[in-house]
Amino acid sequence: MYLDDFDFELPEELIAQHPPPRRDASRLMQVDRDRGEVRIGHFSDVVELFRSGDVLVVNDTRVIPARLLGRKDSGGRIEIFLVRRLAQEDEVWLCLTRSSKPVRTGCRLFFDHGLQAEVLAEESDDAGQRRVRFDVQGNFLEVLEQVGRIPLPPYIDRADQAQDRERYQTVFARAPGAVAAPTAGLHFTEAILGTLRERGVDICPLTLHVGPGTFLPVRVADVREHRMHGEFFQVPADTARRVNAAKREGRRVIALGTTSTRVLEYAVDEGGELLAGEGVSDLFIYPGFRFRVVDALITNFHLPRSTLLMLVCAFAGRDLTLCAYRRAVAEGFRFFSYGDCMFIS
């Protein structure tokens, strides 16, 4: 189980830098695991791949403007990247920092609109994370909307723009807290969701606040030694009930994205029952993993040698997945967050 086993050649020009003109204007690759077949179509035809009684599980997290540009009390510039809220009462966040000199405990930080912060501690991990307390009058997330910038992924080689405030969110985004979008959901429109409901598809939400760990490279040769960063999740009781009913009745559970997949496969007991509740998930899915909930997966095309590609290989099989990826490259598919989509059944 080596990192090189999950590599493929990807021309740089296939990395999507902007969203398509319409959410549903992307292309769709269908992958049939049983037949080992790959077919190409348009995402607007995705409704034809659903059956009455299917349960589609979506991640309703909302991306926050997690990049903050400010100054230290010494006058030097600093960039703060919010990772995860640790204490809501005092607005203590786990953060990544970038500046010309190291940011020490006790350093005061200053941003636009009067927002200030203090570095409370340096974390002991190797990611350079720090605990930061923000001093804010009123609702911190509302202040972020004024001060922060949309945290586009590192492979999008441009500054965030006004359109990203809308297009880097799903139409069902509700719970603020993610610093990266659950990108498979970006293709869905209200009209497509409405058509699915009319056809008898049950659409259920859960929440996973996607963290920056989704972009971090795997730095070990043997992927089994890799450790995922924890991400907050919540499974509503009603979603657990509806998913469990579908499994008992032999109806398909379709995960919209790798983020929904990780929650569904983490919050399940030994008997295969999805459990309601919340917590922090660090589940790493790679080939050999036994899926107990997810029957089909909708996902974008992922980075070479990434944990997300490993998850897809675990679900569809490494050989079939890499075959599909080579076909996507040959057909000029758009890759990553603003790219095209795959339906694996």
CATH T-level topology of the largest domain: QueA-like
Proportion of beta-strand residues: 25-35%
Percentage of residues assigned to helices: 10-25%
Structural class: alpha/beta
How many structural domains in the coordinates? 2
What is the rounded Rg? 20 Å
SSE pattern, N- to C-terminal = EEEEEEEEEEHHEHEEHEHEEHHE
For the residues shown, what is the average pLDDT? 95
Helix count equals 7
Name the poorly predicted regions: none
The count of DSSP E runs of length 2 or more, i.e. the number of strands, is: 17
How does the overall form come out from the CA principal axes? globular
* CATH class designation of the largest domain: Alpha Beta
How many strands, what sense, and barrel or not for the largest sheet?
Answer: 9 strands, mixed
End-to-end span in angstroms?
24 Å
Widest sheet: strand order? 2-1-17-16-14-3-12-13-15
CATH superfamily of the largest domain: QueA-like
Descriptive tags:
single chain, 345 residues, alpha/beta, QueA-like, Thrombin, subunit H, 2 domains, nine-stranded mixed sheet, six-stranded antiparallel barrel, 7 helices, 19% helix, 28% strand, globular
Walk me through what this model shows:
With 345 residues, the chain is an alpha/beta fold. It has two domains: 3-63 and 165-344, 3-Layer(aba) Sandwich (QueA-like); 67-147, QueA-like (Thrombin, subunit H). It has seven helices and 17 strands. It has helices at residues 140-147, 164-167, 190-198, 237-248, 258-266, 307-316, 318-330; strands spanning 27-32, 37-42, 55-59, 61-63, 67-72, 77-87, 92-99, 108-110, 116-122, 129-135, 175-178, 202-208, 231-235, 253-256, 277-281, 296-300, 341-344. The strands form three sheets. It has a nine-stranded mixed sheet with strand order 2-1-17-16-14-3-12-13-15. It has a six-stranded antiparallel beta barrel with strand order 5-6-7-10-9-8. It is globular and about 65 Å long.
